[in-house]
Amino acid sequence: MSPIERVADKLEAPDLDNRSYRVIRLRNKLEALLVHDPDTDKGGAAVNVNVGSFSDAEDMPGMAHAVEHLLFMGTKKYPKENAYNEYLTAHSGYSNAYTAATETNYYFEVAASAEPGSEATTNGVPSSPLYGALDRFAQFFISPLFLSSTLDRELKAVDSENKKNLQSDNWRLSQLNKSLSNPKHPYHHFSTGNLQTLRDEPQRRGVDVRKEFIDFHDKHYSANLMKLVVLGKDSLDELETWVGDLFDGTHNKNLPQMRWDGLQPYTKNELMTQIFAKPVMDQRLLDIYFPYQDEYYMYETQPSRYISHLIGHEGPGSILAYIKAKGWANGLSAGPMNAGPGSAFFTVSIKLTEEGLRIYEEVVKAVFQYISLIKEHPPQKWIFEEIKGMAEVDFKFEEKESASNFVRSMCSTMQKPLPREWLLSGTDLIRKFDSDAVTTALKYLRADNYRLTIVSQTYPGDWDMREKWYGTEYKVQHIPAEFVAAVKEAEATTAQNRLPDFHLPHRNEFIPSKLTVEKKEAKEPMKAPKLIRNDETVRSWWKKDDRFWVPRANVFVTLRNPLASAVPANSVKTRMYCALVKDALVEYSYDAEIAGLEYELGDYYVGMGIDISGYSDKISVLLEKVLITMRDLEVKPDRFKVVKERLVRGYRNHDFQQPYHQVGEYTNWLVSDKGWINEQYLAEVTQLTPEDISSFYPKLLRQVHLEILCHGNIYKEDALRVTDLVESTLQPRILPQAQWSVARNLIMPPGSDYTYRRTLGDLANVNHCIEYYLFVGNGVDRDLRAKTLLLGQMTDEAGFDQLRTKEQLGYIVFTGPKSAATTMGYRVIIQSERPTEYPEERINAFLAMFGKSLERMSQEEFESHKKSIINKRLEKLKNLDQESSRLWSHISNEYLDFLQREHDVEHIKPLQKSDMVEFFNHYIHPTSSSRAKLSVHMIARSSPKNVAAHISPTEQKEKVVTLLGKYLTTMGVNADVDKLTSRLEAIDVAGGDQVGIVDAVATYLDEDVQLSEEKVDAVLEQGQQLLGTILPSLGIEVKQSVDGVDGQNFPEAPPVKKTTFIENVRDFKASLESTAGRRPVTDLTEFEDTEPKL
Ligand SMILES: [Zn+2]
C-alpha cells in the first residue's frame, strides 16, 4: 500500500515496561505511535488535532468544542449516527473527547481480543475489535457528515456541559482570569460555548451554524496537524498495516501550526491590578500571576522546574514554613501555566487563613522577599541534580496506566517538539542544567510584572461587577501606590535586611541512591510472610516482594502497650502525643515526601503504630528520625496550644458529621468488651495540659512489645536491621505476654432484641439514622463466614432497590456483613427523615420479602451470586501497597489467617440453596426465635415540626423568598424580591406545597425575567433539589404528591417480638458473656525462619 516512513522504534521507557513501540509517518504526513502490549486486556486509540478554542470565531465562542461534539455524528462509510459507540459498547469499550486551547483530542478503549474461538479474519477483514473500532474512528477524520438531524441535540449537550460547570469555582475563577485579560489575545475566549453563543445569536444574525462548523473543520483539520496513538495486543507490523490502510484517506492540507507570538494575555491595562472575586464555596485564596515565557522548546532545561521547586518548597526556610508559622496560610503551590503558543504565566497560589486574608499584603511581600533570595544566589547545580534525580527515579519505576489514559495523554504529548525517542519520558525528565536559562526565567518574577486575585466569600464585600459567562461577582482595581512601593521594597531586600526566616533548602538526604531490584521469577508468590525474630521483646515479620518488582517497601511497627487506651484520658493523651510528634516533624518530612517517602503515626487499641512507605533505600533514615523524635519529644507550650485546638475541633466536629458516619461507633461500642466513644474523649481532651503529655509519653515507650512487618524490596538482613533500629533507639523493657490486652466481643444471646437510642449532637440536622445489626457468630467460624458473605452479596442490589429506589427511605442505604474484633454479623444502615421506627419496620418487611425470594430463587441465579462473591474474594492484587496492608491486617488482628480468602472460597463453593435458607431462617428472618438483634437509633433533634414551632408561617415564606433569590442570583438570574413575593402570594408555602412553589417560580422566570425556555428548565431543575433541603430546614414538611411513595403497595412487615431498650450501657454489657479472644489460627512456629537459638 502506501509508503510508510519509520521515524523511531527505540523509545526511552520505564524499567518495568514490557510494551514495544514504533513511530511512523504516513504519506499524508499523519504521524502515529504504535504500541504493542502483550498483557493488555484493552486496546485503544486517540487522535489529537492541533486546533482548539483559540481558533474560535470571535462571535461564536465554543465553535471548536461544538465541532468536537458534531464530528461523531455519522460518516459516509458508517452513516448511522451512533455506529461508532454501538460498536464500542458491544465490545466492552467506550469513547470520549475534549477540546483545549490549541488541541482537540478524541480517544476510545475497546476489548483487545476477539471472542475466543472466532476466526482471525472474516471476509478478509480482521475480526479484532480494535480493528473494527479503528475503522469507524478513522472515518471521522476522512468523511464526517455533521448530520443536521443531530445538530440541535449536540448543541444542547454542549449547553448542559456548560451548565454543569456554572457553579464550579474552578471554572468560574479560571474564566474570570481569561475574561479580564487582553481582549485581543485568544486566551480571553469563552471556550465551552452554550446555546446562546452557538445557536440562538448566530441564527438571529442569519448565520447557518451547521455550515460554520463544517467550514471550521475544512479550514483547520489537516493530516499534517494530527497525531495518532494506537495500543493493542497485536504485533507492531499488524498495527502498522491497519493504520496505513485506515488513515491513508485523511486529507493533508499542509497547514502551518497556529501561533500567537506577538501577543500577550496581560498588557499594561491588566498588569498591576488586583481582582477581588467571590467564590461559591467557603475558601480563601491569594493568586499571584506573573506573565512568563513559553517553555515549549525548552524541554531539556525546563528552567521553571528549578523556580517552582524553591517557591513551592515546604521545608525549613521556605515561604510556606514562614507564613504557616505566622498563622497566615495552610498551603502553597507554584508553577508555570501555559497560555498558548508564545505565552505563559508563572503562578503562586496560596490558601489563606482568616488572619492571612486580613493582611494579604504581608503575604505578597513575604513571597517577594523570598524571590529576592533566589535571585541573589546563582542557580545551584546540586538543587538541579536533586530535581533531576527524583524525576529519573519516578520515571524509571512508573507503573502502567490503562489503555485509554495512555493513548489520550500520549497523543497530546506527540504535539510537542520532542525527539520521538523521548515521547514516553516527555517533559517528566529534565536533562540539562542551564544556569543562564534559570537566571533569564527569574527575570519574569518582578515587582512591576504581576496581577493579584483575592478570593473570599466575605472580603471586601463590595464586589460591583459580574463576569459575563459564569456570573462570578468581582471587583477590579489598580494596586494602590503604597502597596506597590512596599512590594518593590521587599523585592529589593538583601541578606542584611531580609527576614532571617528565609534560606534556601538544605540538601535532601532522602533522595534514593540505590534502586536495584533483584527479580527472581517465583513460580507461585508466597502468601504469608516469614517470622524472622520471635522473642520476649519483638516479633518481626518479613516478606521480600515476589510480584511487583518495584524498589519500594512498607514497614509497619506496633508498640504494644495496654496503657495507651486503658481509659479515655489515656487515649486522648496518646493521640495528642502522636499529633505533637507529627507537628515537630512537618518541615523535616517534606524532604522525604519529595523523595517519595511517607510515614504515619497513630494510636490504636493495642498501643501505637508507625507505618513507613516508599523507596526502600531510605526507609530506615526516616524511621530513625521518627523514633528519635518520639523518644526525645520536647512539649513546647505554643505548639501544644495550636495542636490541641486542632484536636479539640476534630472531636467537636465529630458530632456534626452525617449521622450515618456516627452510628457505627455506637454499635461497635455496645458489642465490644472495651472501647470508648467520642463524647468520652471530648470530656478529657479539653482538660489536657503540656505537663500531662510530657509526663505520660515516657510511660508509653518505657515498656512495650514490638511487632514489625517489612514487606517489599527488602532483604532479611535489612529487616533484621530495621528491627534492631527500633529496639536500640527506644530500648524498652519487656512487656510480658500476660500483660497484652485481649480483644473480645460480647455475645448476643439467641432470641435477644435490643434497641439503643441516642440523640444527635447537631441541633440543626433533620436526619435520623438506624443501624440494624444481626449477630451471627464467631468471625473465625469458616462456614458461618462463607454464608454471611454470600448473604451480603445476595442482598446488595435487592436491598438498595427496595429500600432506596422503591421506598425512598433516604439517600443513604447500606446492607451487608459487618465484622467486629472477634465476631461478625449482618447489618442495614438507613439515614432518613422518617422517625427511626419506620425504617426499622421497613427493614423487617424487606428481610421477610427477601426470605421468600430466596426460597424461590432459581439455581442459576443462586450460582451466579456464588460466582460473583468468589471472584471478588480472588481478585488479583494490584500493587505492593495493597499486598502489604493485607499482610499487616492478618498480623495486627492476631489471627495470622493469611489464607483467609482461599478458605472463604473453599467454604462458599459447596453451599447449597437449602443451606442458605436454613441460615437465613435461623439468623436473619424477622420472625426467627433464634436470631439476635441490636438496633442503634440516632434521633435527630430537629425536625421540620420542631423548627416550625419557632418560626411563623409569614417568616417561613419570607425566608423561602430570600433563599430562592440567593439561588437565582448565583445562577446569574435577576432576583426581584417584590415580584417573586407576589408570584408566591397565593401559594401555601408553609404547608409544603412544593409543586406550587416551583410553578410560581417558573411563571416569574418566564414572565417577569423573560428567560428562554431552556434556561428556565435548567434553573428549575437545580432549584427543585434545593427546595428539598431548604423547606425542611425551615420547618416545612413537604406535601407528598399523589404519585408519591406512600401510595404504593409495599411488602407488609411481619409482627415481631418486643424490643428491650438499653438504658444503662454498663449494665447491658455486664449482662452479656464475651467471646474467646483473638488467637492465631495457625501455630506461630509454622512461619518461623529464625536463627537457631544457642
Ligand atoms: Zn464537550
From TrEMBL:
Keywords: Hydrolase, Metal-binding, Metalloprotease, Protease, Zinc. Residues 33-184 form the Peptidase M16 N-terminal domain. This is A-pheromone processing metallopeptidase Ste23. The keyword Metal-binding applies. Gene3D superfamilies: Metalloenzyme, LuxS/M16 peptidase-like. Residues 790-888 form the Coenzyme PQQ synthesis protein F-like C-terminal lobe domain. Belongs to the peptidase M16 family. Transmembrane segments: none annotated. Residues 210-388 form the Peptidase M16 C-terminal domain. InterPro entries: Metalloenz_LuxS/M16, Pept_M16_N, Peptidase_M16, Peptidase_M16_C, Peptidase_M16_M, PqqF-like_C_4. Residues 395-684 form the Peptidase M16 middle/third domain. Coiled coil: none annotated.
